[in-house]
Design goal:
heterodimer; A: 252 residues; alpha/beta; 10 strands; 37% helix; B: mainly alpha; MetI-like fold; two-stranded antiparallel sheet; 2 strands; 78% helix; binds adenosine-5'-triphosphate; binds magnesium ion
């Protein structure tokens, strides 16, 4: 049995008094794609946002239970959150490129990590844009403001930016929710390639997408993890009636 | 259908009117200034007016040189900018990004109060506290200096700069900051390279408004800067500003005299200086964010 990248035990999460995650237990395995599905408002975003502690920014957020990353509790006092977020990257639901040029969006990540060498930056800008399947579309306009790109291009830029940091894990929160089928296909293809070298967690509302790209799948409902298993099991022989109802479209 | 179109028409025209009203007022004021001030320039050469070193409007022969006041205004304004702009931007960041809830509310309320104090009161307080302090600490013959004026004006412009910058910083989408932090940026790196960058147009506009207040301020400078119409050589000597000259002498002039018109001419110069500053700021902004 391989060591899990993340081991989450008894995780509860709250916004103020609102209890949004209830006793979540889950192991995330390395070099695999884990898909999280469930109806809107069931806590999927809250869950993945607790894995890189980006939810710390929300003042009312509170959690109990353990989130271990390589056997290290990430909510322990002595944890270096900046280093954690460098190793656990995140692509947000809504594309959020910085209001800078395409080039600077990626160069920013490198500067943040102390890389000043111009050649190195140029090389990384190119390689990460290539990995994110955006290079051919923007190679002649790297100085253009990133906000002028289309939504799908912006999202791929955000992915490129995340790749430039060379994390170990990438969290995707509905990366395709605002994209057309062609961009979606490109991103799915990308996820497929990234699996070789990264651990991926993806939240999606699209059942076909979850079935296509993931190795493991978890079904959330009202803050509880109802079922977690290999993707083909979840989609062909779910153990729980509610999972079956959801994936066959009978509710939600 | 008719009625709806008519309503649209009225609303459109009303909005248009309020839009041009402000421009109209500016033009009216400028025309009035020109009308009163231009007759002055028939007698006195503009260049001589600006570069003249002596201001003796009522002696014989009278001399109208406003260079000391232009320099006085610039010196006091520059000092106020150097003092107030960085401090205000820092304060705005502290309030919007760092301060915990309670402190934030207290600070915001305090700043709004500061903005509400009339400038005469501030000038008076400055006169009895700041002026002696400057004199004693720096061992100067008098505390009525450009330096004191800069500090006082800086303080007066801070509420404007802070609250508008703070709005600009708050208006930066939270997703930018989240994006930066998720990439492993430290809090400071996210603030410095992303939030400030995105809020920059607003911060510059805030500073311009603050500076506008400094240049136009009259009462407080009149009470604190010493009002000596001589060319300043250091920060630590009395100066007189353009605004203070107008305010101090307007009451004593004979209507229609050269002295009277000269004050309007100063108004024109002041107007032009402010105008140039605004245009420059606009150009800087547009080049940066086209
Ligand atoms: N900042 C917040 N403050 C208070 N409540 C919040 C906050 N963010 C989310 N919630 C609540 O927590 C619950 C879970 O939200 P979450 O965003 O995790 O759901 P989700 O599964 O990602 O939904 P979606 O599929 O619509 O993105 C919801 O009921 C939501 O209203
Ligand atoms: Mg969500």
């Amino acid at each position: 049995m391989v060591n899990p990248t993340f081991r989450i035990t008894g995780l509860d999460a709250f916004y103020g008094n609102k209890h949004v995650l209830k006793n979540i237990n889950i192991d995330i395995l390395p070099n695999a794609v884990t898909a999280l599905i469930g109806p809107s408002g069931c806590g999927k975003s809250t869950f993945i946002r607790s894995l890189n502690r980006i939810n710390d920014l929300i003042l009312t957020f509170r959690r109990e239970g353990k989130v271990c990353y390589h056997n290290q509790d990430i909510y322990a006092k002595d944890v270096d959150v900046v280093e954690l977020r460098r190793r656990v990257g995140m692509v947000f639901q809504k594309p959020n490129p910085f209001p800078k040029s395409i080039y600077d969006n990626i160069a920013y990540c490198l500067k943040v990590h102390g890389i000043k060498d111009k050649d190195k930056i140029d090389a990384t800008v190119e390689s990460s844009l290539k990995k994110a399947a955006l290079w051919d579309e923007v190679k002649n306009s790297l100085r253009q403001n990133a906000l002028t790109l289309s939504g799908g291009q912006q999202q791929r830029l955000c992915i490129a930016r995340t790749l430039a940091v060379e994390p170990e894990v990438i969290l995707f929160d509905e990366p395709c929710s605002s994209l057309d089928p062609i961009s979606t296909a490109k991103i799915e293809e990308l996820i497929h390639q990234l699996k070789q070298s990264y651990t991926l967690i993806i939240v999606t509302h699209n059942m076909q997408q979850a079935a296509r790209v993931s190795d493991f799948a978890g079904f959330f409902l009202l803050g509880e993890l109802i079922e977690f298993d290999k993707t083909d099991k979840i989609f062909t022989a779910p153990k729980d009636k509610r999972t079956e109802d959801y994936i066959t479209g009978r509710f939600g | 259908m008719r009625i709806r179109l008519f309503k649209e028409f009225i609303i459109e025209k009303l909005i248009f009117l309020s839009g041009i009203a402000s421009i109209l007022f500016v033009i009216l004021i400028f025309v009035f200034l020109l009308k009163e001030g231009l007759s002055f320039f028939k007698e006195i050469n503009l260049f001589k007016f600006i570069s003249g070193k002596h201001w003796y409007p009522i002696s014989e022969p009278e001399q109208f040189g406003i260079l000391p006041m232009i320099l006085g205004s610039l010196l006091v304004t520059l000092g106020a900018i150097i003092f107030a702009v960085p401090l205000s931007i820092g304060a705005a960041f502290y309030i919007s990004e760092v301060a915990p809830g309670k402190i934030k509310d207290i600070l915001k309320a305090g700043i709004e109060m500061l903005a509400a104090i009339p400038s005469v009161v501030l000038g008076f307080i400055g006169m009895i506290t700041l002026v002696p302090l400057v004199k004693n600490v720096l061992h100067l013959p008098t505390g009525l200096t450009a330096f004191s004026g800069s500090i006082m004006l800086g303080l007066m412009s801070m509420p404007t700069i802070i609250s508008i910058s703070e709005d600009a910083i708050n208006a930066v989408p939270k997703s930018y900051k989240e994006g930066a932090l998720a990439l492993g940026a430290t809090r400071w790196q996210a603030m410095y390279r992303v939030t400030i960058y995105a809020a920059l147009p607003g911060i510059i506009a805030a500073s311009m408004l603050g500076i506008g207040r400094v240049i136009g301020e009259t009462m407080a400078v009149m009470m604190i800067t010493g009002n000596a119409a001589v060319i300043p050589h250091t920060f630590f000597q009395p100066v007189r500003t353009l605004t203070a000259t107008i305010a101090a002498e307007m009451g004593e002039t004979v209507y229609g005299s050269m002295h009277y018109y000269s004050l309007f001419a100063i108004g024109i110069i002041l107007f032009i200086i402010t105008f140039i500053i605004n245009i420059t700021a606009d150009m800087v902004l547009h080049r940066k964010h086209k």
